[in-house]
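Dear U.,

Please find below the material for section 3 of the report. The protein was modelled together with zinc ion; I have listed the sequence and SMILES used, followed by the predicted complex structure.
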Amino acid sequence: MHELAICDAILKRVDRIVKEERLEGVNSVTLEIGTLSGVVPAFMTDCWQAVIDGTPYAETALLITTEPGVAECLDCGAQFTADPEKLVCPKCGGGTLNPLTGTDLTIAEINAY
Ligand SMILES: [Zn+2]
């Protein structure tokens, strides 16, 4: 599962930062997820619980903000904020879309102590 691998990678990155900065622990990690990244925020929260279980980060909360993705229709050239549930062009109904923004997943903030 895609989200599980991503959560695992995020946890490793957080762990590395904690060790490098000699921090004691992490209250929360904030992710920014583009709506066209293919990552489902609700799955991320579940997978995060699975990867932190039994680690020093078992109490670390995963906070998620989403960035609306903009797509371009390759049939008519229209640009619009894409609805990830319904990926069709609102102007011509075409389904061949090219995502312009909102395809990334980034760690926006690590709240450590
Ligand atoms: Zn179109």
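For the text of the report, you could mention the following: The chain has a mean pLDDT of 95.

Regards,
Y.
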